[in-house]
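Final report, section 2: Outcomes. Of the targets proposed, Ferredoxin is the one most frequently requested by collaborating groups, and we therefore present its record in full.
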Amino acid sequence: MSTQEEPGPLLRVDHAACCRSGACSLVAPDLFDQGEDGKVLLKNPRPPGHLLAAAEEAADYCPVSAIELEAPPG
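The predicted structure is given below as tokens.
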């Protein structure tokens, strides 16, 4: 029996749209950080299921909708 979780949805970020608000890294620090230029850095494009709520919240909080969740296949 495996103890690993299935990966969650694919996270995509639009770096050109990022306005450097930092909301994503505040809401979901396990998934997002900010680079030296203040733009979003994605730590894991396929986060485990237990971080799905944080990923959804970060996408909701992004003021320019630069974060997108794509449902996993199947």
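The first strand starts at residue 10 and ends at 13.
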